[in-house]
Specification:
By secondary structure, the chain is of the alpha/beta class. It has a single domain, classed as Rossmann fold (3-Layer(aba) Sandwich), CATH 3.40.50.720. Helix content is 40%, strand content 19%. The protein is built from 12 helices and 15 strands. The strands form 4 sheets. It has a 7-stranded parallel beta sheet, sandwiched between helices. Strands 9, 11, 13 and 15 form a 4-stranded mixed beta sheet that branches. α4 runs parallel beside α6 and α8 packs across α10. It is globular, with a radius of gyration of 19 Å.
C-alpha cells in the first residue's frame, strides 16, 4: 500500500495536499489537532475543513495527534510503517506576533515537532520523501536592506539592481538578521530538514513559501493575509494596515500551485534541497493594491485603518525567485494569479458565511 501522510491536514496547505494526493495514493493519513484555533481563536478554527475533507475523500484517514509528542507520533508511524511513501509537513505556529506571546509553544511546535517527524521518518520509513513547508521569514529582515524605491502603490526593487529582477533567490543570507521568534523557530526546522537529507541521506525538500493562500484558508488577523483581507471586505469588519504606508509587497502562491510543486519534487526528489516557493513575478501585490482588487470583486468599499507601527521583522518587499525550482522541474508553472486567487477566496468565504 502507498500512503501519503500529511501534518496540519485541516489547514490550508495540508487540506490542499489531501485533495491533490487523494487520487494518487491508496490512502492519505492526516494528522491535525486544530491548534490553529488555540493560536487564533474562532477565526482559526479548522474543524469545518477537516469535516469537508473527511466527507469528500473516502480514502482519507484522520488522526488527532500533537506533533510535539513523540509517543503520539510513534503510534501512527508504527501503524503504517514503510507503506508511508510521502510525508508533507505543513503543521506549524505561523505568526510573528503570536510567537512572542508563547515562545516555548512556538518553538516546540515549529522546531521540536519537525525534529520528531524527521526522526520518526528515519526510524520507520526512511525511503519516504519528506517535504517541509518552510517560510521566507527564515531570511529575517535581510530583504528590507535591498535597494527599494517607492511608487504610487508599492515598494519595488530599484531598476539598477538587475540581480533581483526576478525576485529573491535561495542565496540570500539567513544569518545576521532579525527574524522574529517565529522566523527563528522556522530556521531551526528548515536547517534540520536540510541536515536529515545531507547527513542521513533522507529525501528531504524544503520549500520556503511566500504568502500561501487559497479558498480553504482559515484566515485571521495575525495570519492569512489575502483570506482575512477578503473576509473583511465581505463582512465590512475593520482591517488594519501595519506600517510601510500600505505599500509593502507580498508574492502570493495558491495552495494548489504549491502542492503541485511538492508533486513534482516527489517524483524526482533531491536530498536536502531548498527552494523558494511563492507567486514570484507572476502573482504579487501590495497591501493597497490588494484592497483595490477586493473592492472590485465584492463591490464594497473596505473599512480599514492605518497604523504607523509595522510588525517586527515584517518585509517591505518580498517577491520569490523560482528560477532554481523551474530549472530542476521545468514541467511546473503557476496557474493562479492574484485576481483569480482572490475571486476563489471570495466565493469560498461567501459560501461558508451562508451556511454559518
Amino acid at each position: 500500500m502507498n500512503i501519503a501522510l500529511v501534518t496540519g491536514s485541516a489547514g490550508l496547505i495540508g487540506s490542499e495536499s489531501v485533495s491533490f494526493f487523494a487520487d494518487k495514493f491508496d490512502q492519505v493519513v492526516g494528522v491535525d489537532n486544530n491548534m490553529r484555533q488555540y493560536f487564533f481563536g474562532t477565526d482559526g478554527n479548522t474543524d469545518w475543513n477537516r469535516n469537508r475533507i473527511q466527507e469528500k475523500y473516502p480514502n482519507y484517514l484522520h488522526r488527532t495527534a500533537d506533533i510535539r509528542s513523540v509517543e503520539e507520533l510513534e503510534v501512527i508511524f508504527k501503524e503504517f510503517g514503510a507503506d508511508i511513501k510521502l510525508i508533507v509537513h505543513t503543521a506549524a505556529q505561523p505568526s510573528h506576533d503570536w510567537a512572542a506571546r508563547e515562545p516555548f509553544t512556538d518553538f516546540s511546535v515549529n522546531a521540536t515537532g519537525t525534529l520528531n517527524l524527521l526522526e520518526m521518518t528515519r526510524l520507520h520509513c526512511p525511503e519516504a520523501v519528506f517535504i517541509f513547508t518552510s517560510t521566507n521569514k527564515v531570511y529575517g529582515d535581510n530583504p528590507n536592506f535591498l535597494p527599494l524605491v517607492e511608487t504610487e502603490t508599492r515598494w519595488e526593487i530599484a531598476e539598477d539592481h538587475a540581480y533581483y529582477e526576478n525576485g529573491i533567490d535561495e542565496h540570500l543570507s539567513i544569518d545576521h538578521t532579525k527574524h522574529s521568534l517565529f522566523g527563528a523557530s522556522k530556521v531551526a526546522a528548515d536547517v534540520l530538514v536540510q541536515e536529515y537529507g545531507r547527513y542521513f541521506g533522507l529525501k528531504t525538500g524544503v520549500f520556503r513559501g511566500g504568502c500561501l493562500t487559497g479558498p480553504n484558508h482559515s484566515g485571521a488577523q495575525l495570519h492569512g493575509f489575502l483570506s482575512y483581507l477578503m473576509k473583511c471586505a465581505i463582512t465590512g469588519n475593520s482591517y488594519t494596515i501595519f506600517g510601510y504606508k500600505g505599500k509593502q509587497v507580498r508574492d502570493n502562491i495558491h495552495a494548489h500551485d504549491l502542492v503541485n510543486m511538492f508533486w513534482h519534487f516527489y517524483q524526482n526528489p533531491r536530498a536536502g534541497e531548498v527552494y523558494n516557493a511563492g507567486g514570484g513575478r507572476f502573482a504579487n501585490v501590495s497591501m493597497l493594491e490588494a484592497i483595490k482588487v477586493c473592492e472590485e470583486i465584492t463591490g464594497n468599499t473596505m473599512n480599514y485603518t492605518y497604523s504607523d507601527t509595522n510588525r517586527i521583522g515584517d518585509h517591505i518587499w518580498y517577491v520569490s525567485d523560482l528560477s532554481k525550482f523551474k530549472a530542476h522541474y521545468p514541467g511546473w508553472n503557476w496557474t493562479y494569479d492574484i485576481k483569480s486567487t482572490l475571486s476563489e477566496i471570495h466565493d469560498g468565504i461567501a459560501e461558508r458565511l451562508r451556511h454559518a
